[in-house]
Amino acid sequence: MADLEASYLPWQASVLQRALKLKFEQRLPHAVMIDSASEMDISAFIMHLAMLLLCDQAQDLSPCGSCEACRRAR
Ligand SMILES: [Zn+2]
Question: What is the distance, to the nearest Å, from the Cα of residue 67 to the centroid of all Cα atoms in its chain?
Fold first, then answer.
């Protein structure tokens, strides 16, 4: 996988919070469609979301970056 930086913008936090809530409730859907109303590149946000959902030690809406799942994602 290409080395893509994972990050999010402040207004994307609510999406991350909802995704984490679904993860903790074990109600994650098998697929998610993400669309951007602008032409802004959202690949960093998508990477952040994927890592956050896979991470075993996520804190404050951020993946730890060092667990097995995070290392594999990079
Ligand atoms: Zn991690």
Answer: 15
- Domain boundary assignment for the chain: 13-25+42-74
Cα separation, 58 vs 13, in Å, equals 14
What is the distance in A from the centroid of ligand 1 to the CA of 62?
8
CA of 36 to the centre of ligand 1 (A): 26
Is 64 in contact with 73 (CB distance < 8 Å)? no
pTM tops 0.85, yes or no = no
Return the pLDDT at 1. 44
Ligand 1 centre from 71 Cα, in Å?
A: 7
Q: What is the pLDDT of residues 41-64, one digit of tens each?
A: 888 899 999 999 999 999 989 999
